[in-house]
């Protein structure tokens, strides 16, 4: 249902006006709840929508008051021409990885380049930009900026000339966070602005938790063994679970382990780099927690988890990732993954049609990194050529998204990733069937009793 516009509560904002931070945060939280309304989104492409959501989220997390520095009509051209050169708004960086820091130190800061990337997602490679939904149609940066700065906020309320380019946010001490230099947008008067202090970790986590998008209504009706059914039932796609910075850290970790694997610094079966003798053959895999055998191996082990083969244990960052998945309601606490397989796809690499082995319990999930690709589902998948697979359901996997496989989607439908157009990394997290846990496996303490995040209802409603 479309959101109804109402003239009540219309706000006139003039240059120099101060808007108290709590009001802005409250407005941003409200907008976050209706941001997916079709009327709100009219004219926005699917690339812009997550950016708008991310920006609203940033606003809902900022501390300090806001001053309108000029009006939207004047600045929309300025914004258009300067978008790629400078951040149009100085926003206090919300703490990332809110439950726990990816790094050992709470205060660990990102290098300025990655922070710029967070703030100016439109300027960055879409492959590492804000969480995205499907990626249909690509906007030029200027167009994205124009859309975000004017159209999204103007709508019927012409008087509410609220635009990113028009707002200056004081950061503590009047400094630009990114390089410590005084911000050109913050004048003397801004020093008088009272900073209500940072939001608590719990509120930050709840806000980010509420911004996660969850698609659970996949449909693919097929006749299977005489029964008509939805073979996609049980599939879920979650976006916005990992920030761009968190994704970058995960990619870094994968690259570090790939390097160690190449240098034979990992257990023998942790890292595997098959010989590629034709297109669609082979992709690098890194396994943690258990050794999964794809096909009968040299020692005649059947496919499945090998009982007497050890691989390296799950690194700290991947255990944190698992906790995030459970805390943020992507996987149930009854199914905390204790193993994972990283697939590194170079351009042209693929994964052929398969159903994941039942040595792993359901549900399980796959995190997509670096670039978007399609995954195909169906009770029968056609092999149309080397690395070319076709099926009745094609699901685009946005960068940073998590696909959960359960029910028919995991056990009736096969899935395959056709040859990818560009390098991609996926991490599949799975819990071993307790009867199949390999010899010598030590269960990590921090994966015991992982509790899902409790929704307090103070911030918004789950989607
Ligand atoms: O790379 C993907 O998205 C799928 C990976 C997969 O199907 C698997 O590891 O079993
Ligand atoms: Fe799979």
Automatic annotation (TrEMBL):
Residues 186-196 have a biased composition (Basic and acidic residues). Residues 336-433 form the Fe2OG dioxygenase domain. InterPro entries: AlkB-like, AlkB-like_sf, ALKBH9B/ALKBH10B-like, Oxoglu/Fe-dep_dioxygenase_dom. PANTHER family: 2-OXOGLUTARATE AND FE(II)-DEPENDENT OXYGENASE SUPERFAMILY PROTEIN (PTHR31447:SF23), HYDROXYPROLINE-RICH GLYCOPROTEIN FAMILY PROTEIN-RELATED (PTHR31447). PROSITE patterns: FE2OG_OXY (PS51471). This is Fe2OG dioxygenase domain-containing protein. Residues 98-118, 168-196 are annotated as: Disordered. It comes from Riccia fluitans. Belongs to the alkB family. It comes from the Eukaryota.
């Amino acid at each position: 249902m479309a959101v109804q516009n109402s003239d009540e509560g219309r706000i006139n904002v003039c240059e120099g006006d101060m808007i108290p931070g709590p009001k802005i945060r409250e407005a941003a939280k409200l907008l976050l709840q209706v941001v997916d309304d079709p009327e709100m989104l009219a004219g926005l492409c699917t690339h812009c929508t997550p950016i708008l959501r991310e920006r609203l989220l940033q606003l809902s997390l900022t501390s300090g008051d806001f001053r309108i520095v000029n009006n939207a009509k004047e600045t929309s051209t300025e914004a258009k021409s300067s978008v790629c050169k400078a951040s149009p708004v100085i926003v206090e960086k919300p703490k990332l990885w809110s439950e726990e820091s990816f790094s050992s130190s709470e205060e660990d800061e990102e290098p300025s380049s990655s922070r710029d990337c967070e703030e100016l997602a439109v300027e960055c490679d879409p492959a590492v930009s804000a969480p995205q939904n499907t990626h249909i149609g690509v906007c030029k940066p200027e167009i994205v900026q124009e859309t975000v700065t004017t159209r999204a906020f103007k709508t019927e309320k012409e008087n509410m000339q609220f635009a990113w380019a028009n707002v200056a946010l004081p950061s503590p001490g009047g400094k630009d966070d990114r390089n410590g230099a005084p911000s050109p947008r913050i004048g003397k008067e801004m020093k008088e602005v009272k900073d209500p202090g940072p939001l608590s970790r719990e509120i930050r986590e709840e806000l980010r938790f509420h911004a996660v998008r969850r698609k659970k209504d996949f449909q693919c009706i097929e006749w299977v063994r005489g029964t008509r059914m939805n073979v996609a039932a049980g599939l879920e796609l979650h976006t916005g679970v990992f920030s761009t910075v968190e994704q970058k850290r995960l990619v870094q970790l994968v690259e570090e382990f790939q390097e160690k694997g190449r240098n034979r610094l990992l257990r023998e079966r942790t890292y595997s780099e098959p010989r590629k003798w034709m297109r669609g053959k082979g992709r690098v895999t890194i396994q943690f927690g258990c050794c999964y055998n794809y096909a009968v191996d040299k020692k005649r082990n059947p496919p499945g988890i090998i009982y007497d083969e050890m691989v390296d244990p799950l690194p700290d960052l991947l255990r944190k990732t698992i906790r995030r998945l459970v805390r943020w309601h992507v996987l149930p606490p009854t199914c905390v993954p204790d193993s994972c397989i990283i697939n590194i796809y170079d351009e042209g690499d693929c994964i052929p049609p398969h159903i994941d082995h039942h040595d792993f319990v359901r549900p399980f999930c796959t995190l997509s990194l670096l670039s978007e690709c399609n995954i195909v589902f169906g009770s029968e998948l056609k092999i149309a050529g080397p690395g070319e697979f076709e099926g009745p359901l094609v699901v685009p996997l946005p960068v940073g998204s998590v696909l959960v496989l359960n029910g028919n989607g995991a056990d009736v439908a096969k899935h395959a990733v056709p040859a990818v157009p560009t390098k991609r990394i996926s991490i599949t997290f799975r819990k071993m069937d307790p009867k199949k846990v390999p010899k010598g496996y030590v269960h990590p303490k921090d994966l015991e009793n992982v509790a899902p995040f409790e929704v307090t209802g103070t911030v918004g409603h789950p989607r």
